[in-house]
Specification:
binds calcium ion, Arc Repressor Mutant, subunit A, 231 residues
């Protein structure tokens, strides 16, 4: 069983970016965009960790945290917030948070903290392996091991960025993903590579997964807009 995370964030782009990266790490992610929805989910299900934005419509993250803690003192909670005054940190911990990240934060750092908190709360429980395989056009991608079988059965080891981009395109199968979305989702807030970099990733994917890379069936460029994956 993979660990389950509740992600509470009202900014859609940020929520999607965090979700994608958590899923690549093998977590199962439930989303909520308001405090009330988050509370409903925590009442109905168990999570291994909760990522909680502070500035939410209607009910803020501090209130949500306080309410969760009335019945559940164990599930680790990480606050995300634009505020970085020490008073807010104190408040967050007072209401029962386990950790705190100030926006804009580094996605890698969030993933690391998630991993540490889940490991602490799971101590003693074995981590089960879960296969996450995806097949298309005779290719196979394993999102957990970052290994793939490409055209003519060649073995490919993918980098973390390649896996992120593949997952994004596959999740959005048949629709165009813009360059901006790709940069935001795969590279996060802080490191913005040139758009040439994305082109090079796509060329690499074609080399790995297209029978004829010069007339791609799966990885399409849409001039001036972005990229599209089709099965
Ligand atoms: Ca917010």
């Amino acid at each position: 069983m993979s660990s389950r995370i509740l992600l509470v964030e009202d900014e859609e782009n940020l929520r999607e970016a965090i979700k994608l990266n958590l899923e690549i790490e093998g977590y199962e992610v439930e989303e909520a965009d308001t405090g009330m929805k988050a509370l409903k989910k925590t009442e109905a299900q168990r999570f291994n960790l909760i990522i909680l934005d502070v500035m939410l419509p209607e009910m803020d993250g501090f209130d949500v945290c306080q309410k969760i803690r009335i019945t559940d003192s164990d599930t680790p909670i990480i606050f995300l917030t634009a505020k970085d005054t020490s008073q807010d940190k104190v408040l967050g911990f007072k209401y029962g948070a386990d950790d705190y990240l100030t926006k804009p934060f580094n996605l890698e750092e969030l993933l690391l903290r998630v991993k540490v908190l889940i490991r602490h709360s799971n101590r003693g429980k074995p981590e089960a392996e879960q296969l996450k395989l995806y097949h298309f056009g005779g290719n196979e991608v394993n999102f957990l091991t970052f290994k793939a079988k490409g055209v003519n059965g060649i073995d490919v080891s993918l980098t973390k960025k390649e896996i992120s981009l593949l997952k994004l395109l596959i999740d959005r199968k048949d629709s165009v993903v813009s360059r901006t979305q790709i940069l935001q989702f795969v590279w996060g807030y802080d490191v913005y590579p040139s758009t040439r970099t994305i082109d090079n990733f796509i060329l690499t994917f074609r080399k790995y997964f297209e029978k004829d890379p010069s007339t791609p069936r799966h990885f399409h460029s849409v001039r001036g807009v972005g990229y599209k994956f089709t099965e």
